[in-house]
Amino acid sequence: MTALVEVRNLVKTYGEGEAETRVLKGLDLDLETGELAALLGPSGSGKSTLLTILGTLMRPTSGSHRMLGEDLTTASDRDLTEFRNRHIGFVFQFHHLLPDFTALENVIFPAAVEAGRETREARERGRELLVRVGLEHRMDYLATKLSGGQKQRVAIARALMNQPELVLADEPTGNLDRESAMQVMDLIGEINGREKTTFLISTHDEKIAEICRRQICVVDGRAEMGRERA
Ligand SMILES: Nc1ncnc2c1ncn2[C@@H]1O[C@H](COP(=O)(O)OP(=O)(O)OP(=O)(O)O)[C@@H](O)[C@H]1O
Predict the structure, then answer these.
(1) Residue 57 Cα, ligand 1 centroid: separation in angstroms?
(2) What CATH number does residue 177 fall under?
């Protein structure tokens, strides 16, 4: 069986000459369908860099990156954008919701971009997702009127809008109190269990990492695999 994501000998350097920083130094990583994995590592070890490359938002300096059997290192920018919209969802620490739009409008935004317009089906799926994340009573609230935990739940619903196989989350609970963080993790766990969506979650929080079935640590530019838990 081929992995959902297959990364080999990934290298990423920033800058040139004396200012060159080699962040990823030949990293190998496989992610299977349905995994719930934490991405750990000291500050500056390259977690965000790796997530940005896996999300096709930045190209590696060298190495191979495949997802769903497609070679993404040689794909055109246009093909990458299409691939990203269809197959990858993102959740960030600072949710990046559009403040002047409602929760529902924020959720259906990716589908509207993909389709070039807002469809009735998209509105329906957006509503369903907001119900699933427990925000049926906040659909028409402006994003600015939501609490931090609620905003993050909207961000998760938005990430799921186009039914991605992979969701990349960069410190999704970093800005939340313990209770909201656990609610967000419960939600991610439920979606992962039910829909087999693969999640890769970068975190500094050991408790969050423990909830994940697998821990992957970026150390000295390479990935060290943690033990898989049943
Ligand atoms: N655009 C850039 N240009 C130059 N250097 C960069 C750039 N982005 C990141 N870096 C450097 O690459 C290294 C890895 O950064 P990255 O943000 O990937 O680490 P991280 O593990 O996510 O850190 P943190 O846990 O603090 O968020 C750091 O030394 C950083 O300074």
Answers:
(1) 15
(2) 3.40.50.300
